[in-house]
Design goal:
With 280 residues, the chain is α/β, with parallel strands linked by helices. The protein has helices spanning 10-16, 33-42, 60-67, 83-92, 125-136, 154-161, 171-178, 218-230, 236-239, 247-253, 267-278; strands spanning 29-30, 50-54, 72-77, 97-101, 117-122, 147-153, 180-188, 193-194, 201-208. It is 35% helix and 18% strand. Helix 4 links the parallel strand 3 (72-77) and strand 4. Bound molecules: S-adenosylmethionine. S-adenosylmethionine binds next to strand 1, helix 3 and strand 3.
Length: 280
């Protein structure tokens, strides 16, 4: 296996710094540096780009991002035990790795980054979904990031890229695909991680579009979609009753049959419905 840098192998880093994986922090590490470099390549051309990495752990993906030419990596890690290992990477790449110890959910990274910015991370599932939703719903569009390259449980990745008519299609798919191109870039078996998780994983790559695919007020669309999928087995005229007594009329204006169910409705039609509701 060829080396991507002259730092020690990750198994040695983990042994040197006693980084036994903690379940409570969702720690399933990637120790194959060729694999982490391959994931870094999925993030696109990193030259001249700052990369925000959440949860670097012992630094496998961090090293991949730096060896693939990132201008700078800002790494936010909650587990203080990982910091000495990350400092060794920072010393190997002077001025190119900034490390912040803390919870990514509480930290605003923007002050530390210069556009263009890409995001790359191998995160625990719960934090990953919450951060993804935040990144997809900024106060203004386009967002601060050009792309997101994120590891998820395979099942969550499929929800992000799902198309209408499939079981996986829901709020996450609409949120992700309304203003982004989203695709599964890589699939990884449990054995790719140490320790192996119970389920397979996948890397999702999302590219921010300059403008939404279809016009709609983000808050109205978000409310409509949340309500529609909250009772996804019900017909829309029942599931969306809370939007007002004239919901059947609004559905007709949007070109949606009131007897349809949420999972059959394409994003374009949800946007038309959000416009019809807002125009009332
Ligand atoms: N990126 C490393 C890799 O690929 O080997 C580690 C991935 S591991 C799945 C997730 C990492 O996220 C762990 O290092 C964990 O300590 C860190 N983490 C968990 N929750 C976090 C949070 N709220 N904020 C920042 N980092 C967090």
């Amino acid at each position: 296996m060829s080396a991507i840098d002259d730092l020690p192998p990750l198994r040695q880093v983990i042994a040197d710094h006693s980084l036994s994986a903690r379940k409570s922090l969702g720690q399933n590490f990637l120790l194959d540096l060729n694999l982490t470099a391959k994931i870094a390549r999925q993030a696109g051309d990193l030259s001249g780009t700052d990369v925000l990495e959440i949860g670097p752990g012992p630094g496998g993906l961090t090293r991949g991002l730096l060896s693939e030419g990132a201008r700078k990596v800002l790494a936010i890690e909650k587990d203080a035990r990982c910091l000495p290992a990350l400092e060794e990477i920072a010393a190997r790449y002077p001025g190119q790795l900034d490390i912040i110890e803390g919870d990514a959910l509480d930290i605003d990274p923007l002050a530390h980054l210069t556009p263009p910015i890409r995001v790359a991370a191998n995160l625990p599932y719960n934090v990953g979904t919450e951060l993804l939703v935040r990144w997809l719903t900024p106060p203004t569009w386009p967002p601060f990031w050009q792309s997101l390259t994120l590891m998820f449980q395979r099942e969550v990745a499929e929800r992000i890229v799902a198309t209408p008519g499939s079981k996986a299609y829901g709020r996450l798919a609409v949120l992700a695909q309304w203003r982004c191109d989203a695709r599964i870039a890589m699939s990884l078996p449990p054995e790719a991680f140490t320790p192996p998780p119970k389920v397979s994983s996948a890397v999702v790559h999302l590219t921010a579009l300059p403008a939404p695919k279809f016009e709609a007020d983000p808050d109205v669309l978000s409310r409509v979609v949340a309500m529609a999928f909250n009772q996804r087995r019900k017909m829309l005229r029942a599931a969306l009753k809370g939007l007002g007594a004239d919901i059947e009329d609004r559905l007709h204006v949007a070109g949606i049959k009131p007897t349809e169910r949420a999972e059959q409705v394409p994003i374009e039609a949800f946007c038309a419905l959000a416009r019809a509701v807002a125009a009332r």
